[in-house]
Amino acid sequence: MQDAALRLKALMEQLLGAPLPVRIRAWDGSEAGPPESPVLVVRNRRALRRLLWKPGELGMARAWVAGDLTVDGDLYAVLDVMAGLVWERGEDARTLREALRDPEVRAAVWGLVRMAGPPLPPAPPREEVRRRPHLHTKRSDRRAISHHYDVGNDFYEIVLGPSMVYSCAYWDSPDGTLEGAQRDKLGLVARKLDLKPGMRLLDVGCGWGSMAIHAAREHGVSVVGVTLSQEQAAYARKRVAEEGLTDRIEIRVQDYRDVTDGPYDAISSIGMAEHVGSDRYLEYARDLFALLKPGGRLLNHQIGRRPWGNESAYEIDEFIDAYVFPDGELAPIGGTVSGLEAAGFEVRDVESIREHYGLTLRRWVANLEADWPTAVRLTSPGRARVWRLYMAASALAFERNRIGVNQVLAVKTPDTGTSGMPLRARSWR
Fold first, then answer.
1. What is the pLDDT of residue 131?
2. 305 in helix, strand or coil?
3. DSSP for 1-50, written as a single string
4. By the 8 A CB rule, do 317 and 57 touch?
5. CB-side neighbour CA atoms (13 Å) of 79
6. Sequence-distant (≥ 6) Cβ neighbours of residue 366 within 8 angstroms
């Protein structure tokens, strides 16, 4: 009798206290749920064991990465309806403990246990990083950066496209090209920093060298780019050589805390501060402040989260921490601004470009899906699934205003009070 999907649907509706908006297809071929809805495919019983041993987001992530759980059709549609049902239902949603007080739910859970098969917990997928305390030492940060960025430059070429920029693009229109939007973002950063020939720019977390190349080629500045990723540095140096810019650009494998050859005229930090950690953020801001000459500018481009009513209760996302950005932490924009001000900066402009990141991530997902067999061959099936899920879910999170991204322009204003900023500050637009 093929009824696994029907039983799973009944259990999930009892746990959630609401109708299930997706269709379920189980390993026995059975299906249940609205016929025109997106399909969540439970490919084997092991998926259930993962959820039983680790209920919640991490269990679902393990099932997805291992290929035990997948989607037939539009991934965004499944994530969208599940987000609205599970993550955004507010204070009226029942917790698992509350649901288990219901005798019918307890009976259904025991039925699920019997359906799941052998009770031994499945091993986590090999792509999972063992979670450690978020110390943000130089060694732990180097290890975390290596996990995320040393996946293979060929893989990132598929996802990012020719620009090789791994941060939010700046779109003039949703119909524009990713390459054009990334070029516009680099131009925006350069204009905010007011880069001019002869200046020295420090690019913190320089990635594959795109900002350094743009600044040197288009604005005539000398650039030092620092990254903790050996693979990124090798790729960036090759690009710099091909552009004939080795006399203007130096790419280092170096922690920003070890940079001592200031002062610099300007600093760009694009998509790097998320790795710093809340306990180290003031140290980060002070270090960059010390590396700038008086009147120098910092452009800090950083993902931010919505503030919590009780900030002490904030917890790092389990899936992101275990599979994507180990030790990564998001802070509300207010905390970012306060940290920069506490370090001595004068914050002159804050621009939210949240909607731009949704557009960017959807293009990255499309790139990955368009060349999926190659991406799998270059990494692993599990790693490719991690990136697809993380980027698609992140796109929805930006679009739903669960997270945002901001460019903060700050100045090391001297005691004279002369900031060097134009009277109409948004002249760079």
1. 66
2. strand
3. ---HHHHHHHHHHHHHTS---SEEE-TTS-EES-TTS-EEEE-STHHHHH
4. yes
5. 19
6. none
- Characterize the bridge pairing of strands 403-411 and 292-305: antiparallel
pLDDT at 92 over 50: no
Residue 94, pLDDT > 80, answer no
Neighbours of 295 (CB within 10 A): 15
**Residue carrying the six token digits 């496209």:** 161
Average pLDDT on 160-173 reads: 97
Q: Scan for tokens 């880069």, then name that residue.
A: 195
- 302 with 273: CB under 8 angstroms? yes
SS3 220: coil
**Site of tokens 């495919």:** 41
Average pLDDT, the chain: 89
Q: Mean pLDDT, to the nearest integer, of 409-427?
A: 90
Find residue 403's DSSP bridge partners: 305
As a whole number of angstroms, the distance between CA 224 and CA 243 comes to 16
pLDDT in tens, 264-275: 999 999 999 999
What is Dmax (Cα atoms) for the chain? 82
Note if the pTM is more than 0.85: yes
Q: How many residues does the chain have?
A: 429
Cα–Cα dist 168/171, whole Å: 9
User: Got the DSSP string for 159-214?
Assistant: HH-TT---S----S-TTS-HHHHHHHHHHHHHHHHT--TT-EEEEET-TTSHHHHH
- Is pLDDT above 90 for 1? no
N- to C-terminal Cα distance for the chain?
A: 64
Alpha-carbon 105 to chain mean position: 36
Q: Are 272 and 141 in contact (CB under 8 A)?
A: no
Residues contacting residue 422 through CB under 8 Å, at least 6 positions apart: none
**In one letter, which amino acid is 278?**
S
Residue whose entry in the numeric block shows the structure tokens 């009824």 = 3
